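Annotated sample (chain length 134).
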Amino acid sequence: MRRLFAAAAAVVMMAMSVMAQTAIRANIPFDFRVGDTVLPAGTYDFDTQAYRVVRISGMDKDLAVPFSPLGRSMWMSKPAKLVFNHYGSDYFLSEVWEGNSPKGRGIPKSDYEISRAKKGPPQRIEAIPDSWRR
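Output written by the structure step:
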């Protein structure tokens, strides 16, 4: 009985470990803004499992950005994707979608992005990350 309990506990611990490792890795070929922070082009990990924040790490940066849950999509987002708003030469991270999930996370607009939006609508750029793990 103890062996069965230990085996079941190990399976639960492994499942929790896998669930906690949801991350999206993407090579972003342009500088982009997240809130008031400008991040240089490079490879970043976007972790969506933290409570009410998206953690972004890479290029010697580590940010925890609050998000607004986006309405659930009627369709599963098959590949994970990142959505950027593009105004002129500025790119702003707008949404983070996990792969195989209907859940999206919206990144709040900064005052600077709001001022850029007053001059005209953005071009929406959807990027499929290099990899994602769940």
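Annotation: The chain has one domain: 23-133.
Annotation: The chain has two helices and twelve strands.
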